[in-house]
Write a structure and sequence with these properties.
This protein is of the alpha/beta class and 323 residues long. The chain is built from eleven helices and eleven strands. The chain folds into two domains: 162 residues, D-Maltodextrin-Binding Protein, domain 2; 108 residues, 3-Layer(aba) Sandwich (D-Maltodextrin-Binding Protein, domain 2). Strands 2-1-3-10-4-11 form a six-stranded mixed sheet, with helices on both faces. Helix 2 packs across helix 9. It is globular and about 65 Å long.
Length: 323
Amino acid sequence: MRSPNKVGLAIATLLAASSAASAQSDPAQYPNQAVRIVVPVSPGSIADGFARMIGEKLGEFWKQPVVVENRPGLPGIASVAKSAPDGYTLLLNSNGHTIAGALNRNLPFDPVRDFAGVTLIASVPLVMIVPPDLPARTVRDFIDLARQKPGQLNFASAGVSTTSYLSAEIFKQNANINIVHVPFRGAPEAVTAVVRGDAQMYFAPIPSARDLGAAGKVAVVAINSSARAPQLPNVPTVAESGLSDYKYDAWFGMLAPAGTPAAILDKISRDIAKAIGIADVRGRMENQGALPVTNTPGQFDAIIRNDTERNTKILRDAGVAAN
């Protein structure tokens, strides 16, 4: 038989644990411990840079550690989906999140149902570049050339799951042209292919396109965002250059496990907006070719749903979606 002292100690321990769990899940007390931001790509990537910039400011606001954890690939995303929905584990991901299900039918998570949007962080426009000797300096020129040479022009990408591929595939479908996809290991290899003339088109990040264009190594044709980018104000959008139906805005955003209390999502969203509003943070993001932008959890949820539906159709039409 247990002694009264031991029984009392056990009850006190249970009450303390219950009280701690209650405090941890109480939106009014969030955060009262370290917060983890999982980034499903390697250190040094643009997503990793965003997570560290924003995490540093959130740590200052919250007086709690904000730890960035790099867990590349699907395991990293799955770990967030399976985490407690309490706001202490977050995911910073790109809009590649919206095509994961179309490319892999055996995902250990559902990209829409298992996550709650927190906020967008940035829009990341890409720039259509072509070899300097290609007789195409406008979108219309390129479309006309592709129609004159069906199946003879290549477009490079950093892989099927990347924004560079989606940008070009949407372009191809909207323009109704026959150009051949050539995937590369990453952005550096894809850019090199255009510089060498092995590929005739690639959607490159702003810094790369700007520097290579200034050096005369590529020709800068258009930008894929819905509005011109302040980093390249003289470069027209694809839509205003002759393909009016074209629209593709790549993004990065913060997500949480589904079921995270709305009050916690709202707080994180507001504080991220506050962090991005700091001039130093905005400037560093813009130097990486991004356009800082935030929204509400509900607005971000709608974007995730809509992009998942749209991008799944694009991949099916391209014949690359999983069966």
